[in-house]
Amino acid sequence: RIAHPPVAISYHMKLLALLTVAVCLPAGLVRAQSPLGALSSQFQSLVESTGPAVVQIVVRSYSAGGNDSPPLLRTARGNGSGTIVSPDGYIITNSHVVQNARRIQVLLPLTGEDEKTHHSILKTSGKLVEATLVGQDKETDIAVLKIEQTKLPTIEFGDSESLRQGHIVFAFGSPLGLDNSVTMGIISSVARQVRPDDPMIYIQTD
């Protein structure tokens, strides 16, 4: 199931011991020719290749707010994470992100020459484009969006059957509207059921 953030990429458990040391050492000690430097470079390459396909979903909707009588409609703004899964603009996100949306937009990150011309350590917000809701399944909390763009970077679907407890995973997305975020952890369990009658089986991470 795609959660917030929606992208997870697994690595073998044997990397965990090296990784634990890497995050405790000063950056100057992790040299490119060392095992830790090589591992860090692999992680950096993974982030650089994956990040452009992870987008922020910006939603505007209406809600009845306050204690007004009669109730007044107010404009509400929300956001979430999405993943580009086809070069012609199909995006996977969570159904609850776009629920009751009146307008859906996708914030595409800067790539290529546009990114090179920006010299600040703080990245710009990217390109905001209109999106259409193609379909959604509330039970599995999945929605499909479409934007009118081509030649987009993508992420391929993985095989959840190959996941094992202890695999290293990376999560990419826009938690709390903070775009271009990446975190790392492990698979805590490959099968969790929140309630006994819940039809969904979840992958748990830390």
- Total helices: the number is 3
How many beta strands in the DSSP annotation?
A: 10
Low-confidence stretches: 1-25
What is the 3D form?
globular
Biggest pleated-sheet summary: 6 strands, antiparallel, barrel
**Helix-and-strand structural type:** mainly beta
Note the gap between the termini. 15 Å
Give the strand line-up of the largest sheet.
2-3-4-7-6-5
* Gyration radius over CA: 19 Å
Q: What sequence of helices (H) and strands (E) makes up the elements? A: EHHEEEEHEEEEE
Beta-strand percentage?
35-45%
**Mean pLDDT level:** 80
Helix fraction, binned, reads 10-25%
Keywords:
single chain, mainly beta, 6-stranded antiparallel beta barrel, 4-stranded antiparallel β-sheet
Summarize the structure.
The chain is mainly β and 206 residues long.
Description:
With 206 residues, the protein is mainly beta. The protein contains 3 helices and 10 strands. The strands form 2 sheets. It has a 6-stranded antiparallel barrel. Strand 6 and strand 7 form a beta hairpin. The N terminus is likely disordered.
How is the secondary structure organized here?
Blueprint lengths: L6 E5 L3 H8 L12 H16 L3 E12 L6 E13 L5 E4 L7 E8 L3 H5 L10 E11 L4 E6 L20 E6 L7 E12 L9 E4 L1
Antiparallel strand pairs: 1-8, 2-3, 2-5, 3-4, 4-7, 5-6, 6-7, 8-9, 9-10
Helix pairs in contact: 1-2
